[in-house]
TrEMBL record:
Protein name: DOMON domain-containing protein
Organism domain of life: Eukaryota
PANTHER family documented for this protein: DOPAMINE BETA HYDROXYLASE RELATED (PTHR10157), MOXD1 HOMOLOG 1 (PTHR10157:SF23)
Residue ranges annotated for the DOMON domain, each copy included: 35-154
Recorded GO CC terms: extracellular space; secretory granule membrane
GO biological process, one term: norepinephrine biosynthetic process
Residues making up the signal peptide according to the UniProt record: 1-15
Length: 154
């Protein structure tokens, strides 16, 4: 799978800046932006899913997206936050986002699943999973035939 090969290439990055320990051990990790954003992930081909953990230096919402071309248009974006009682929330913003417009909440299915989350020392950490191929026309499939880009935001 192209996705797994791509992750193998960037999976050997050792610099991680988050002060929060990950919830579990992952196969891959990358510092997306020094002292701002870190990402861990493991691919489970048998279950057709990827478990991610995103840490960002903020105490608010954080987001990770899968884009066919690096832009928001056509991207499949998961947005999460931890509320003031420690409950994690995660929503999907579908691939119907158009340039210079507010993305639209995808209420048709829930393909991004929050597992755990916490805030500590000015960082937000959320663990979530997503199917590799959701079979949902509103989502970006991660397949051999297509390359894609990761987007993140805080």
């Amino acid at each position: 799978m192209l996705f797994i090969v791509l992750l193998l290439i960037i999976g050997d990055v050792l610099a991680i800046s988050s002060l929060i320990q990950p919830f579990t051990t992952y196969k891959y990790s990358i510092e997306l932006q020094p002292d701002i954003a870190d990402l861990w992930w493991t691919v489970d081909s048998d279950a057709n899913e990827i478990t991610f953990e995103l840490h960002m230096k903020t105490t608010g919402w954080i987001a990770l997206g899968i884009s066919p071309d690096g832009g928001m248009k056509g991207a499949d974006i998961g947005v999460g936050w931890v509320d003031n009682i420690g409950k994690v929330h995660f929503q999907c913003i579908g691939s119907i986002c158009i340039r210079f417009a507010i993305p639209i909440l995808d209420n048709t299915t829930s393909n991004w699943l929050a597992l755990r989350g916490r805030e500590s020392d000015g960082w937000t950490a959320i663990q979530f999973k997503r199917l590799i191929d959701t079979c949902d026309p509103m989502d970006v499939s991660i397949t051999v035939e297509y390359s894609f880009c990761l987007l993140y935001s805080l």
